[in-house]
Each structure stands twice: as C-alpha cells, then as structure tokens.
Amino acid sequence: MLTSLRVKNLALVENIRVDFRPGLNVITGETGAGKSILIGALNLLLGDRADRALIRSGEDACGAEAIFHLADASDIDAALDECGLSPCEDGQLIVRRIIKASGSSQNLVNDSPVTLQVLKRIGELLVDMHGPHDHQSLLSPEFQIELLDAFGHLWDERAAYEDVFRQLQALEEKRAGLAGMGESVEEQIDLLKYRVKEIEEAAPVEGEEEKVQQEHVMVGNAQRILELSGGVLNALSEGEGSAFDALAGAQKSLEELSRLVPDAKAWHEEAQAAAVRIQELSAAIHSLADRVEGDPARLEWLDQRLATYQRLKKKYAPTVPEILAILNQSRERLRTLETRGEQLAALGVEIEKAKSVLFKHGMSLRKKRQAAATKLAEAVTDELHALGFSHGSFSVGLELSEPALSGLDKVEFGFAPNVGESMRPLRAIASSGEISRVMLATKVVLAAHDRIPVMVFDEIDANVGGEMGNAVGRKLAEVAKKHQVICITHLPQVAVFGAYHLAVNKSVREGRTSTAVHPLAEKDRVEEVARMLGGRDLTSVTLKHAREMIESVSG
Predict the structure, then answer these.
(1) What is the rounded CA–CA span in Å between residue 550 and residue 555?
(2) Considering the entire predicted model, what is its pTM?
(3) Alpha carbon 377 to chain centroid, angstroms
(4) Exposed, middle or buried, 167 (CB in 10 Å: 0-12/13-18/19+)?
(5) Which of these, 101, 482, 510, 519, has the minimum number of CB atoms within 10 Å of its CB?
(6) Which domains does the chain have, with CATH numbers?
C-alpha cells in the first residue's frame, strides 16, 4: 500500500505530507483547491514526463516522494533485479522525483538513480491509475482487447503469437525489398561488378599508403639523403678529427686524471658512454644509407601506387578502412542481386510456413479469448447490476479479422442498459455517466484478477449522482477490501464510504496561495460532507443529513 506522499514546491503546494491507510481513502475539497496536484505528483513518481511550469513560482526545483509498504514484494523485487537494483528491505519501497528549473531531474528508487523507463516499469506494478477522462479509453478497440487479455491472463499466448507476427513482418519486408528492385537490377549488378573489380585489382591494404609515402620521400630524395648521411658520418666517426677520435683522446686523458682526481672516474665513464652512443648512431646512419637506392623504376611504381590510393579515396571514401567496408558491402549486395530469384523463392516458402504457424497461434489465442469473453461479459454484467443497471447487460463480441499484432480478433464491447433494448456497441453510448459506470465495473472485475496493490480513481463518479453515487461508493468500498483505493470525489454519496477521509483546501498566507491536506476527525468529516451537500453555509439540516449519511454507511 501507499503509506505516504510528500509534495514540495509543486504548483500551489509548498510542502505537504499526506498519509494514507488501508481500504478506501477519499479525498475531497472545493474545485480548484488542489486535489489534482496530489494525482499529478503521484503521476510524476510513476514516470510521467516533467514540466518545469509545475515548479512553484519563485522556487528553483520541485519534488515528490512516495513510500510504499508491500505485503508481497516479489513482483517489485523481480523488476528491481531486472534493472540492476537491490530488492526492497522489509517490503518498503521509496520513490523520489526532483525536477529542477534548469531542466534536469533526478529519479530515485530506494536512493538509487533510475531512468523514467524504470519508473514506469515499477509504477505499472504498484498503481492502477484512473483519471477523469480515462473512461473514453474503454471505447478504443485496442484497449478492449488489452482488457480482455488481461482478464483471461493470456499474455503468454499473446506473446507467442506476437513473436511469429513480427517474424512474418520481417520476412515480408525482406521480400518486398527484393521484389521492389525493378528493372534496374541488371544496371545495379553491372555497377557493383565494376566497383568490386576496381577495388579488388587495386588491392588496398590498411596502413600501406603511409609506408608508400615514406618510401617515396626516401627514393625521391636518395642523392641528398646519401650526401647528408656521408657528412654526418664524417663528423661522427669516419672523417679526420671526428667526434669519435676526439673522444678516444679524451678518454686516455681522463683515465690518467682519474688516478689523480677521484671525481674524474665518473667523467671517464661518461666519455666512454658518449663514444658508444656515437658508434650506435653511426651504425644507424650506415644502415639508412645502405637502404637508400635512387631507382627510377621503383620511384615510378611508388608514384603510381600513391595515385591509386588517391583515386580510390576520391571516388569511394576518404580512408582505406571505409573503402574496404564498401568493398565488402558491394560484394554482399552483388551476391544478393545475383541470387535474387532463388532468395525470393526461398522467402516465399518461409512466409507460407510463418503464416501457417501464425494462424495456428492466432486460432489458439482466439479460442482462449472466446472462453474469457464469456466470463468477462458475465462478470461485468453482475457488477453493472450492483451499480444501478438492474436489468443491464454487457457483452464481449469477437469477430475473426485479418492478422494484426494483437491477433486474429476484432473485439467489440456491447452494452444494453435497460430491458427491451438491443445490445449496442459501447462506443455508441452517448451518456458519459453510463460509460463511467461501465469502466468502474470492468476495473472491479479486473481488480479481482491482478496483484496491483494500489488503485487510484480521480473523479470516477463524474456525471453520476443520487442513488447511483451510493452504488459507486459501495462498489469502491468493496474493491477496497482487496486493494488500497484512493478516490478523489465531489459526491457526498461516495465520500461517506471512505474508511479514511482527507480534505484539501487552499489559503492565502503572506500574499501567497498554498494548498494543504488534512485528515478529518468525525466532527470535521460531518461538516465536510455537509459542505458537499449544501455549500459553505452549513445549516442544522445539512449537518443532520450529513451525519445520517455517514452513520447509515458505517452502521
């Protein structure tokens, strides 16, 4: 259950904490007092997109926090584990959301940062949210089929069908791509053959161009390299008065000096090391000179090789790895085009097999839907009787249709509110009050089949009044025996069924409007129900009526 909700600097709310209890929690208050802000805060915690305009004027951030205590946290723990998060401790789950005016936001589950997708995933397991306009979704064929599958627990069968459907789609898209190549296939084959041949004959190798460039510099400047190398060698070791000869003389003097001056021993060693280094340097330059050869034929080959690389890079791609990638792609594309006929034939066989498997899965799913449809219609009809449609009936029609992602069925919910009226599609019903009660009936039926601990109804009683309000309140109280229910209502007939009553009001303090939420004691609750009955001016008559309404329900 949701034990507490804290909201800070969100719209009219400065800083409030609302505690909830098991059973039916009702929230009431005058229009504009801020009841919807609580639902908005909860929606944010469940993964809704954040709007910086929600931040209270003058503040740089707003936030919300919800604390849940779960009698059975196995589903949530499994979802947390999938997301790489630690399980709940003692069934407690804390969800926080902070939205900053700068545009950034923080999402935390048990103090671990998470994405919005994770919040949505967890939120779907925690709270079933029903807003004032959600009853319109009941008219959607997509929603109706989702509702039927949820009631029948058909997700495994649905997933098996969807996998085959997606495989069939992929095969058909591949076939369409091959078949749609048209008359230009031969032209494409010729172009690809030319491209593959040109690149293969050029035989580009990654890293070769750099080596060719280096060798080109050496071969093209061979004479000058030899001249410079000879000059350096003369200065280092081969010429008269070379550095090596000078160091040899210095070493003899330092050897004698070291016998007279101890510090000179280190100098002698340094001179020896310098002589060795000169010898190594001379050997390296000799090696270079030996390799240099001013061969005109080799220079011409290097020129041609560099020109080949430049042509390929200008024509196909700026780097050799990219050129090689184009070569591989072209080879693969060429193979595809040259074997197009065989591939189309093979795809045709695969598609027919996939269609056969899809039909098998679809019909299996359809059979289970038909069984679930009968039970769902009966269950919703029973709930509608309790919601004031004593002679109403509900139907779930299934019509075989073309394969779609959802299956082979077209689902149509039907409703007959009165005796003697024929069953009509639910979408043909004009009364939003009737649709609201049908939605509540379906929610009640599904509530008995799911494990979501918290159900939130925001004005489920819209366009409902009088005795129908009593029926709605009674039904919400019934649902609250198995789930925690939080209900925002304008109807006193619904409010009196609450096991816990919260009132929302707003006030002006120091020139700022603020929203507050207070739990109501018995006396305050009577006054709140009386206000809902007759407005701000409380009279003994409305107070007495309010007290009698509460007592009739609690008694």
Answers:
(1) 8
(2) 0.65
(3) 35
(4) middle
(5) 510
(6) 1-132+452-518 (3.40.50.300), 189-338 (no CATH), 520-555 (no CATH)
Section 511-517 average pLDDT: 83
Query: What's the mean per-residue pLDDT of the chain?
Result: 87
> Dihedral sign, CA of 276, 277, 278, 282?
positive
Q: For residue 65, is pLDDT > 90?
A: yes
Is the separation of the CB atoms in 44 and 98 below 8 Å? no
For the stretch 376-425, pLDDT in tens is: 999 999 988 888 888 889 999 999 999 999 999 999 999 988 777 788 88
**Predicted local confidence at residue 397, as pLDDT:** 94
Which 8-state DSSP code applies to residue 134? G
C-alpha 547/C-alpha 19 separation (Å) is 25
Residue spans of alpha helices (H) in 234-339: 243-260, 264-291, 296-315, 320-338
Q: What kind and span of H or E run contains 167?
A: helix 155-179
Task: Give the bridge partners for 486, in sequence order.
Answer: 25, 456
Task: State how far the Cα of 40 lies from the Cα of 52, in Å rounded to an integer.
Answer: 13
pLDDT in tens, 185-218: 778 888 899 999 999 999 999 999 898 888 787 7
Rounded to 10 degrees, what is the CA torsion of 428, 433, 434, 439? 100
Q: What is the pLDDT of residues 457-473, one digit of tens each?
A: 887 776 666 678 888 88
Contact 407, 368 (CB under 8 A): no
Token pair in block for residue 417: 């509110």
Helices marked H in 387-497: 432-447, 467-479, 492-495
Q: CA 280, 284, 285 angle in degrees (round to 5)?
A: 120
